[in-house]
Amino acid sequence: MSKDNKVDNSVKTKKNDGVKSDIRNDKLKLFSIGSFLILLVSVLAINIIFGLKINKTTIDDYLTYDMSSTGQNSVSEITISYLNSLPANTNIRIVGLFDKPKSLRDTPYEYIVPLLDDYVAVSGGRVTVEYINPTTYPSIISELDPRGVYDLANTSCYVISNGGNIIEIMPVDCFTYDSEYLQYGYYLPTSNIVESKFTSAIVNLTQGYSYKAYFVTGLGEGTHTQLSNMFSALGIESSDIQASDNFEVPADCDLLVINGISSDITSSMALGIQDYLGRGGKLIVAVNYYNTNVAESYPNLNSLLSYVNIRIQNALVMENDTSLQINSDKFNTLVNLNSAFTSMAGEATLLRNSYARPITTADTPFAYIQTQPVVTTSSNVTLSQFDENTGNLIQNSVLGQYNVGMYATYEGTPNPPEVYVFGTMTFTSDEYISNFGFNDANVVFTRNIVRALLKAEDTVFVEGKALSDYSIDTTKVTSNSVTVLTFVLIAIVPLALVIAGVIVYNKRKNL
Amino acid sequence: MTAVYKRELASYFRSPVGYVALALYGFLSGFFFINQYSGGNVNVSNEIMSLASFFVIIVPVITMGLFAEDKKRGTEVLFYTSPVSLFDVVLGKFFAAITLIAILFVNVLVHMIITAASGGVVNIGTWGSVLVYFFLAMLFISIGIFASALTDTQIIAAIISFVVILCVQLLSTISSLASSAVASLLSASLFNLNPEKVNSVCDKVASAISWLDPFSKTNDFRYGVFSISPLVYCASMALVFLFLTYRILEKKRWSQK
Fold first, then answer.
1. Domain covering A210-466 in this structure, CATH number
2. Is the confidence at residue B159, as pLDDT, over 90?
């Protein structure tokens, strides 16, 4: 009876403003709307939960996996272990002084924005990333740089701040570029050094620069931006020191670099640097034989280098062994790395060389000076020189083996000088490092000799990353293949499908 | 559900709709591919994500007739009288549309084979784009099915889904516009707020709207970075629209209108 009553109640109708309706309708309507709302709220809740933070890291970050072969968007183990070694209360603030880019596709930010997100994800709350446009929030400039040292208002850069100090990084500087294209104003990236730049900035902010290097300038040398970048990534602060008659190597100099000078140092400079070497100084010299310096024999530089029994010859190395020539060029060749140094070049045994001068021992007769060849040509090399008057190449027909890089030190001395001399610029020039990137064997070798000179083997250093290369085999992409594919893919296939559609329509329209 | 699925899939090829969609898709994908191929650089991910932006056209074409056509012909009564649940009907139609999208995608698979054969790269980022493509397809098809259930006119269904999908695709632009609108409103002397506070509110409005944008959520997949939450977002939102469709169809059981 009670059941019947319930049925009766549920089917009874009501009169409301003249509209007759079933009460079950209202219940079903309520159920329908209610179930949808419950589902909607549940879905929103689930999606919002992904954004919640655990230990300052969102759940979404924990559930994100970089499966790219080059790990472009993930920070490396080196960075992770360094960040984890910092105290938990460390606050490294990365601020992009622009609106967060919405479309990353085919922009430098496609390599930067996701990587910075990963810094946040792996740092356990030590790193935060924000995008604050100074046009909208002018106070951010004084907040980051209260002393007004940097021109932050006019640069769309990233600023990394920690403990009141800041380092700025321009997105464009997070890549190395092909220097040939760069000459014409085109930026063709050759490698991605985003992580290297940001990690080194974090390291330098949190533990300070460990070493100081000086570049000798004012002698017709090229730029040294890439080498400075490399030094910075190794925790070495670099500055320039101008060539002059009252030249003096600063007391805080840990490494002196004479890189690509096209005119000789003065005799007083030679004495100043000799004094520096006498105090256990470390020196890297690199000169080649090309265009502006073919007439330069560097007498003062050689006088300085004789202190460590090394001499730079005024001649051009010409490789006759075709197996070592690059693109059949006798002046752009491969040279052998001395077996004692192979571990410093990632186990590479052949390195690149270009327009090199031979490096030999001088006649300094002291047994405590130890010299060692670093990179050597084949024994099938002739030397040549440009005739200053005619501009012709005068070739010496005598074959021989030559060093294009040498190392010298003093044996049995408590604080010995150490010197690397290269007769080529393929280890230190901006052009080379830019073209071949930070992972090239020559550049790896340079990095390791710097580390060895400064006894800085334990410094945090993140390798550059190769960029994704989407080029296809040009031998297979002929104009004929492009025409055929265009015809088939854009014309024949769509047209055939349209015809099929018309046929089907005609056959079935009367059904 | 299988019967509905088979019937709907077959119906695509019994009318010109399937062929037109295939032709349109083949032309677009071929154009994107040749454009890259002739330049000697082929990133299939770019092609896939460009095609995803054409969902705004493809999806309305595919989904406009799914329920609207049945309503117009009066065959929808079969859904209520056949021994199959309404949700199964919705799912059957949904999976048929997804299958058609998969058939369209064969074009891209051919391009991937040509790229690999030409010494190009088909990497994890490409497969990430494929995954995202199908999850976005799920989301947009569910919107299309929902639009089709709202009306008995195919054209109106197509217009509704076109507008909704277009709004979803333009969410980042809409967020900027909304942010500017809020800024104008709050900057009025009436409120007398600190400019940085105004900007902060605007940013929050913009990020709240951007949070809904499935494209920005799935951006990293094409670089080989896989994340669970964007996939959950697309799938769950698709579920919401499918459930809404189901409720709209079921409304006929109790509504007197």
1. 3.40.50.880
2. yes
